[in-house]
Amino acid sequence: MRRMKTRLIGYLYLAAAMAGVGSTVIASRLAAGGLPPFAATALRFLIATPLLFMLMRAQRMRWPRISARDAVLLVIQAAAGGGGYTVLLISGTKLSSPLDAGVMLGTLPAMSTLIAAVVLRERQTPRDWLAAALATAGVLFVTFAPGHAMPSLQTLAGDALVLAAVACEAVFILLNRRLAAPVPPLALSTAMSGLGFVLALVPAAFEWQAVANGWTVGAVSAIVYYALIPTVLGYLCWYAGSARTSGTEAALFTAVAPVSAVLFAVALFGETLTGTRVAGIALVVAGMLVGATRRREPPGASRATLAARTAID
Question: What's this model's pTM, rounded to 2 decimal places?
Fold first, then answer.
């Protein structure tokens, strides 16, 4: 009974962490209404980095020693998974429907499979390709819904930017496998946040005039929320949950992210859930669940990667 209670608490933590990830679509949409993307990204990491560093100090964690090669990989990871993901998601949600963006958040397994196969030349299993096919079919259902008018060029551009954001996240996860020495998830999250701030700072400086003339309280509040809830608190919830469950169980909860994003979009923006959209969402979630049951990584490595992913989302 006690073990079951512990696992149930772990499930609640995992669900809360992934619901926070889903809410980043809404936060990005609100931030896009009053802040340019690089300035919003720099502000997010400016808030999150000191808090993550304080967590490291509280746990008496030291920075691991890394090679020059791994240091370069970390910078590329930060550019893709930290800065690139946030900038593209904010830019994409400004043009696309929040509901569509939420669905596309769930294409990560498919995107990881495609990038690993095409770019890294990694051999994929039939299960990987099945997950990719399901997620791709889901996106096509949502974007090109049968019986509905063709989406506008603006909507297609927004969808493409959101998919590019997912591709950046996939690059982050794939490069994490290439590190010669594994980096603890909290240290990795802190490094990604700090490097993300540094990388976004110069482009943000060129947006200063737009920030001075166009920022809104709502946009700044959305970024503060993004930094505190999905980034820092999301990391804590994910790590607390994954410590109470197996790696496969934790991975399955990633399917909560697109579902929660869709529900937030319906509740806050009045988006309409048509039958084809529901079918598309179901296909994407099915693809995520199939992809999450892969067992090519040790459970500990899988949990560490997912914990760091939660913090950079």
Answer: 0.86
